[in-house]
Amino acid sequence: MRKKKEEKKVKNVEPSNSLKGMNDIIGEKFYQFQGMFEKAQEIAVYYGFKPIETPALEKEEVFVRGIGEGTDVIEKEIYSFRTKGGERVALRPEYTASIMRSYIENGMNNLPQPVMFYSFGPLWRHDNPQKGRLREFRQFNLEILGSEKSIADALVIRTLMTILKEYGFENLIIDINSMGNKEDRVVFTRELVAYYKKHSAKICKDCQSRLLTNPLRLLDCKNEQCQPLKELAPASINYLSTDSKKHFREVLQYLEEMGIDYRINNCLVRGLNYYTHTVFEVIKLEKETDAEGKEIEDGKEKEISITGGGRYNYLAKELGSKKEIPAVGAALSLDRITLFKECKNLEPKIIKKPKIYFVQLGFEAKLKALTVMEILRENKISVYQNLSKESLSAQLAMADKMGVPYCIIFGQKEAIDNTAIVRDMKTHSQEVIPVEELSDYLKKLK
């Protein structure tokens, strides 16, 4: 006889805190993110971008091959694990490699080129959580695939700057550099390594490691110890081929034509293996402030990097494509953007915050309340309501606390008469409106 399997005892588990660096998005913060996404989406569509959504989970090799071994993302930050079936998978730490994988896998090379995508969603990196830099963060992405033209670089920058302007940002400047093509990069990297080897005793421990694994990231070091060496290091633009110089010059001409301020930053590089030619960052110039937050007239000007992007012509081959697929993109972390005081609290359009609270009094009213709410929904009128509160004063107090301008009061008498009372929460005036006329009446209210 088979022994009966002992039933597993389920222990009562106390609620625990959320994972470190991963936050709930609730209430006003949710609406703010929704409004920001809608605005970015609207602008991207005007410039010709179309939506794409890639899976949150990918084969780990998509990112290892795309981003490259020796990078912080792969060595320290990626969330990867083995599935029950034995497959190595990873949560996406960025969109670019996933989108290029999708381009190749879905035969998008057969579409009219270039293809232009925008995407929005959560990404994950096991980084040290800090203000504006969480382990789960939300990002808006722009990608143009299938064009090596310099105008594609300029279009990505133009779209990104327009989004930031609509968010309320001013005093922005583009830091820009060129890493050239594959051959240019090899020559430049060789010269950079030779320079730093001469001064290896003077650099920080991290840079000593970068010298062996990812030399380009030497120029990205923020350690004060390494700054004097960075200023005298070889510049990538001095090693550009004729074609690379032409591409970079054209991008700068586009920026000048569009009136976008820029400056060439020789220390601006990308440690990820797939970047080529144009790399850029959007810098916010901010005057020094005193303890009360007021600008100091003769104070120093702070520079804060907001976001950036660049060209990645060789990513496709890293992911197994037989042919190179020229591409350029940029990313915008909404978690970080919302920390700036000038960032507007944009009202969402697709999901509107209700301006009406629906007060329901008694069982007879509740029986018909859902029907009334469906009539309002069909007319695109959303409402707040509380199913458990019974008293008029409690529900009006809740409406007042939420700051809604109007209330619908629906009690037993109204349910019998097929009417509703509309109350102005500011003036306390009320009107009795037939249910069949309620939607039209509410639409006229400001």
* Span between termini: 76 Å
Content-based structural category = alpha+beta
* Poorly predicted ranges: 1-10
- Count every helix, treating DSSP H or I runs of 4 or more residues as helices: 15
Strands ordered across the widest β-sheet = 1-5-6-11-10-9-7-8
Percentage of helical residues? 25-40%
Our estimate of the beta-strand percent is 15-25%
What's the gyration radius in Å? 28 Å
Shape: elongated
Chain-averaged pLDDT: 88
Largest sheet: 8 strands, mixed
User: How many E-type strands?
Assistant: 16
Structure, explained:
36% of the residues lie in helices and 21% in strands. The protein is of the alpha+beta class and 446 residues long. The strands form three sheets. The protein has an eight-stranded mixed sheet with strand order 1-5-6-11-10-9-7-8. It has a five-stranded mixed sheet with strand order 13-12-14-15-16, sandwiched between helices. A three-stranded antiparallel sheet has the order 2-4-3. A hairpin with a 5-residue loop joins strand 3 and strand 4. Helix 1 runs antiparallel to helix 5. The longest helix has 19 residues. The radius of gyration is 28 Å and the shape is elongated. The N and C termini lie far apart (76 Å). The N terminus is likely disordered.
